[in-house]
Amino acid sequence: MRLAKICFPFVSLLLFPTMVTGDSKIPEIPHSEVGFPLPYYSPVSGTFAEIRNHNLHLGSDFKSYGLNGHNILATFDGYVEEISYSKTGYGLSLNLYNPKYKIKSKYAHLHSFGGTLTELELLRRALLLMGDPTGFQLKLPPGMFTTKKGNAIGKTGETGSGPPHLHLEFRSEKGNINPLYFSEIHQKDVTPPTILSMFLEGDDLESPLLFSAKEIGKGKFELYTEMGDKFTSIQLTGKVRIRMSGYDKIRSRNKNNVYGMDLVVNGNSVFTRNFDFLSFEDKSQKHQFYDINRSSLSPPVYFYHMYEQPKLFKDEGYSIDLNQFPKKDKIQIQASLRDATGNKSFVSFEIIHEPSPKDFRIKQTSKKTGNKYRSVDGLVTIDLTKAEVSGDGSLLISEVLEKDIPFKIPKGLPLKGKIFKLDTKRMSWKGEGLGELNLGVTPSIKESLYFFDSSIGKFQGIQPKRKSNGFSFKLTKLGYLMVLGDETPPTVFPMTSIARYIELPEVRNHCMEEKYYGLSDVGSGFKTNVELLVDGQTYPYEYDPDRSAIRVLIPKSLQKERPYLLLEVKASDFAGNSSEPFVDLISTNGWKEDLLQASCPVIE
């Protein structure tokens, strides 16, 4: 980020974060002194410690329903310690600090400052006008801008990354605190988390087992095998690793991260974790909490380690060491997920301490040389040499038949060759694995490499590149690899309920009418450059990656000349398929002339 090249006698530039120390992780501020950050009881749309691209999410996101300009409220008494702005990341943000309890709250993606702190908003405007308009980061003198809990100190917006929402963080001297830790902010939830599946890996198993979960009562789930049989017990010996997949819904349709988890063996707790606090060091250590090769941000799927994972990534933890139990002992297991209000969901099963039967064993399905793996037939190779590998196990590459895959290949995408399943045993990796699929011939433009992510149940991109004899690709997840043909064109559709930059009347741009058109493709993927015509003439647009849509701005002054506008959009994909033109007849009669400003452009 570039800093504003501007000086004020009362403002010092913050070039690096101030190092702080303290004894306690979470300050002992009374819950009654921490309030909600908005004037309405907004649902949470993103929760603490969720997976992001590089680090973990350090706060909670609150819905603003696409409207910029809601007041943000001071969560406690304090003063504004720092303000910053960038075109990416946090966007416009504000840090509020309470010196008594040494706690700060950070508000991000704001539209502006203000409320009871009108001079702070004037300072923001001055910095952008007189300094560098692309960004600033300023530390303010203590007590310059003071406020009380519940006072308005800014407006919600959509600066930085993502659609409109409020991002709120709490920080102590040791790290970040989950906003849902505070009783006035957690969502008074009555719905327990949803358990999706359980992943079982053992020294005695040649290949890991994945069981799906079905709810049979509030918070009570049963497990089922891939064949649909109910799972209640298994014979195992050695060390066992248990991972749970699930999410929590908090007053909205968003699938959020859970607050905590527990593992109970024979009635005794052997593992518990709360996502109530993350140290500054832990925020980049996703592997401590999640199976990163099976977890996903979009759509949200979290595979939680039900054990302590060592901070050193090369090591691998475990849930239970069965060697500590007598032979033939029956061991009762309960694994559960919790939300911030204490609602719990659980699954139960039994382990019989005996070697697993032969029907759980499978033949070796890949060959290993160092951290390079290849399928038995040699067609698929994956090189993890440049990735950071954990554990002493292997990456498993096995050929499967189309009738045996747990998903359906979409219509219009015919299969071109073999399907390979990628799985792991006692290992995971951070970073990108470099892979190759050898077809023996040059693939046509209609053929592309596809990857079905088994953890989230959908096809995902793996950055394939055509080669003279097949494809190269990059791999970070586990699932199914295959070549499909693409005979299906992309689609264009209107997004009438979505808009950006919807602001308060005094700052709203009345000059332009905004239109959004979504793009989608079931095959090789749509191109973000489209053919757009308005009344037969090429017309400019911008692509919005947050919504996978194009944004078209039309001057409202056109209503003086034209009662209707004919807009046409034609999209194409990377396989050479083109969509039929999407036609939108736009009436300008609703664009009121008295709202047009003198500065609005006039187009004849």
UniProtKB/TrEMBL annotation:
Question: Could you tell me the keywords of this UniProt record?
Answer: Signal
GO MF annotation, one = metalloendopeptidase activity
Signal sequence span per UniProt? 1-22
Q: Can the keyword Signal be found in this entry's annotation? A: yes
- Protein's recorded name: Putative metalloendopeptidase putative signal peptide
Which species is listed as the source? Leptospira biflexa serovar Patoc (strain Patoc 1 / ATCC 23582 / Paris)
